[in-house]
Amino acid sequence: MTTAIAAACVALMLAAFTFDGGRSGNKSLSLKDAFDGKFLMGVAMNRSQIYRRDEADYWLIIDQFNSVTPENDMKWMHIHPEKEQYNFEHADKLVEFGEANHMFIVGHALVWHNQLAPWVFKTDDGATVDSTELMQRIRDHIRTIVGRYKGRVHGWDVVNEALAEDGSLRQSQFLAIAGPRFIEKAFEFAHEADPDAGLYYNDFNLVTAAKRDGAIRLIRDLKNKGIKVDGVGMQAHWGLTRPSLQEIETAIEMFSALGVNVMFTELDISVLPSPRQVQTADVSNRLRNTPAMDPYVDGLPDSVQHQLAARYASIFRLFKKHADKISRVTFWGLHDGVSWKNNFPVRGRTDYALLFDRDRKPKEAYHAVIEASKE
Ligand code: XIL
């Protein structure tokens, strides 16, 4: 456990007595209580939730979770849209919410090739920046943001999705301009700005062998150079049958053996047909909707509901078995109505990826996860 996590746990223990668990109408054990002492239970908050535009969402988050991540509002395009302009308004609100509710607050994501601001790679006259200038920009970005929330945001996704599917470094403009050292520099800048914050490498498909091994090489190299890396975030945008429990378990064991905390940072389970052979979470890659791709517009059949519940239960049984290695599990969204899976990888579908339905009611999968915690 990092100091940040330990501090947050103490805060959570104190806070537990002030929570009114009955407000959401859900009297059963909450997710955070069910896995208390094992790992944190987190949720990604969208902007409406950050601004308390929906009371049901607001109380459900407080009742069920002890960690929050902003779904979008700390991404470069939102928080640093122009070179000289930072927009902290929404991120500040999220941090205030997390603090008021004694939650473990995660910052997402400092360096990522998506949802980036267009100015980052361009000089004033439209040319491509050189390596020195890009490193300077990354440094200013990280120092300013991590510095602002020093001691308040407990952990950061420092670098997001820097790997390709074969485990080599992704051919991003960060890599093309600054070379591979942009990764270690990003971790160094974040560490300088807040020495106590947890620092994570975050990516999707980290349970498939080639990419997993690439991430292991990356993290091992960083650690060998004396760079502080505290955790690996596996996004976990999964399906009903893939990845296999065996793949997930192997990844947990292998990452943990590196001496880093393992986190599942963006968990959701899509019940919809996947348009591709290879599952991806690459947000630049969206496809067209067709009726065959969107079979449950009028509701989820019981058989699929059961399948989703069984899948979630088996995953949480596995997480529980490896609770000594896992520090946090975060759902990528609160309920099915706000899940990004309704629009990815195909726009405008009706997915059922989370534990609460569109009316904020706990689904069969929710009860199955709670039961799994008791076994
Ligand atoms: C997603 C958000 O959920 C969407 O609202 C947004 O339109 C696109 O990004 N990997 C990540 C997350 O690290 O930040 C992405 O979030 C999902 C994939």
What features would you describe in this structure?
By secondary structure, this protein is of the alpha/beta class. Helix content is 38%, strand content 14%. Helix 7 (131-148) packs parallel to helix 9 (181-193). The structure holds (3S,4R)-3-hydroxy-2-oxopiperidin-4-yl beta-D-xylopyranoside. Residues 71-72, 109, 160, 235, 266, 281, 283, 340 line the site of (3S,4R)-3-hydroxy-2-oxopiperidin-4-yl beta-D-xylopyranoside.
Tell me the helix content: 25-40%
Q: List each distinct ligand once.
A: (3S,4R)-3-hydroxy-2-oxopiperidin-4-yl beta-D-xylopyranoside
Number of helices: 13
- Work out the strand percent: 5-15%
Structural class: alpha/beta
> Compute the gyration radius: what is it?
20 Å
Q: How many E-type strands?
A: 9
Strand and helix order: HHEHHEHHEHEHHEHEEHEHEH
How would you sum up the global shape? globular
Distance, first to last CA? 24 Å
Query: Strands of the largest sheet, in order across it?
Result: 1-2-3-4-5-6-8-9
